[in-house]
């Protein structure tokens, strides 16, 4: 099981004005209902400051995210304990709550046994919740999983609460960016990826991308979850 995506970026890490996300806000909620905010068990100073990564709802008690999101950085296979992690569902805003927002505790983490921080291969993890998500077709829904591979040229959308530019702040409201799946040969021109990974970008604007804090979130193609991005 290995569904990784390497998202291309084109810019200097030392240039804080370079937009990484280049995203937009959507008035509709047709994709928002599939994503969750993976967080620490409690916020530090204010609500929402504990956001770690994104995740996707694939079952009433199952969240799919990236393994490196719940693994202590640079320490191979040294996972966070399940009670250190929670997920927030039903809210588009990171820093505020409404009647649909729920914070759910994680009972177990099940990360791929072959995941390593060195290569980020097999960067996938299941979060098993203590209680069921209040599923509906408006603010929380299960996303379909594909039975075939995504083809190069496919139009997809990724979304998250990651940084709005390199070293920049996290947004309060969920942001979206539209990307196209590339061939691995095309991606290798700009970055290195492994053969088991795929990559996506916008060939007309390389500033449109995911960033820190978007990890673990979905790349949605034809209303199906094809990959979680790193």
TrEMBL record:
One of its GO terms (molecular function) is serine-type endopeptidase activity. GO terms for cellular component: extracellular region. It is found in: Secreted. Residues 20-230 form the Peptidase S1 domain. Keywords: Disulfide bond, Hydrolase, Protease, Secreted, Serine protease. It holds the Pfam family Trypsin. CDD domains: Tryp_SPc (cd00190). Protein with lectin and protease activity involved in the establishment of trypanosome infections in tsetse flies. Binds D-glucosamine and agglutinates bloodstream-form trypanosomes and rabbit red blood cells. Capable of inducing transformation of bloodstream-form trypanosomes into procyclic (midgut) forms in vitro. PANTHER family: AT26814P-RELATED, POLYSERASE-RELATED. Belongs to the peptidase S1 family. This is Lectizyme.
């Amino acid at each position: 099981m290995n569904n990784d995506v390497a998202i291309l970026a084109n810019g200097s890490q030392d240039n804080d004005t370079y937009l990484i996300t280049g995203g937009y806000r959507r008035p509709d909620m047709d994709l928002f209902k599939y994503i969750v905010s993976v967080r620490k068990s409690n916020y530090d100073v204010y609500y929402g400051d504990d956001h770690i990564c994104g995740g996707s709802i694939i079952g009433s008690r199952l969240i799919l995210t990236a393994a490196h999101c719940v693994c202590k950085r640079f320490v191979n296979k040294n996972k966070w304990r399940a009670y250190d992690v929670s997920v927030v569902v039903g809210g588009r805003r990171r820093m505020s709550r409404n009647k649909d927002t729920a914070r759910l505790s994680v009972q177990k983490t099940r990360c791929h046994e072959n995941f390593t921080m060195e290569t980020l291969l097999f960067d996938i993890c299941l979060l098993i919740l203590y209680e069921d998500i209040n599923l509906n077709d408006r603010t929380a829904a299960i996303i379909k999983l594909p039975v075939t591979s995504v083809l190069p040229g496919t139009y997809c959308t990724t979304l998250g609460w990651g940084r709005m530019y390199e070293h920049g702040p996290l947004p309060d409201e969920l942001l979206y960016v539209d990307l196209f799946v590339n061939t691995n040969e095309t991606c290798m021109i700009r970055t290195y990826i492994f053969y088991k990974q795929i990559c996506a970008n916008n060939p007309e604007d390389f500033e449109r991308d995911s960033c820190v804090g978007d990890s673990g979130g979905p790349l949605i193609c034809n209303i199906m979850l094809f990959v979680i991005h790193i």
